[in-house]
Amino acid sequence: MSWYRWNGEDLELSLRVQVRAPRDAFVGPDPGGEYYRVRIKAPPVDGKGNQALRRFVADAFGVAPSRVTLIGGEHARYKRLRIEAPSQLPLPVARP
Q1: Which of 22, 57, 69, 91 is most enclosed, with most CB atoms within 10 A?
Q2: Percent of the chain, pLDDT > 90?
Q3: Whole-number Cα distances in Å, 31 to 1, 24, 59
Q4: Cα–Cα distance between 16 and 64 in angstroms, integer?
Q5: Looking at residues 24-38, what average pLDDT do you find?
Q6: pLDDT band at 1 (very low <50, low <70, confident <90, very high)
Q7: What is the mean pLDDT of residues 63-91?
Q8: How is residue 83 annotated by DSSP?
Q9: How many CB atoms lie within 10 A of CB 16?
Q10: 68 phi and psi angles, rounded to 5 deg
Q11: Which residues pair with 17 in a beta bridge?
Q12: Span 14-37, mean pLDDT?
C-alpha cells in the first residue's frame, strides 16, 4: 500500500478528503491504492476543513491535534499528514 509510510516513529498518510460529508469517517483506499479516502463534515472555508481533518485524525490515532501536521495539499483535496508517534492504529497499517 502506498497511501502510508513510516518515518521513524511518525506515520505519514496520503489522503483524499471529501468535505461537507454527512459525518466524519474513514472510507477506504482509492482503487489505485495511492490515497486513503476520508470524509469530513466541515466546509473547505477559511481552513475549517483542514482543522476538522486534523482533529478527526488526532482523535482516531490517539494523539493531540498538535501532533498531526499537514505536510502537503493545504488547498487541495489530496493531502499528506504526519502523525507523531500514534498510540492507536484505526487503519490497516503495519508497523515497521
Answers
A1: 57
A2: 88
A3: 11, 20, 26
A4: 22
A5: 95
A6: low
A7: 96
A8: E
A9: 19
A10: -115, 120
A11: 38
A12: 95
Q: How many CB atoms lie within 10 A of CB 60?
A: 19
Q: Which amino acid is present at 18?
A: Q
How much is the average pLDDT of 44-60? Answer: 95
Residue keyed to cell 489530496: 78
Residue 15 parent element (H or E): strand 10-18
- The 8-class DSSP code of residue 20 comes to S
Select from 20, 12, 79 the least CA-distant residue to 48. Answer: 20
* Residue 26: partners with Cβ closer than 8 Å, 6 or more residues away: 36, 37, 38, 60, 90, 91
- What's the pTM value of the predicted model, to 2 decimals? 0.93
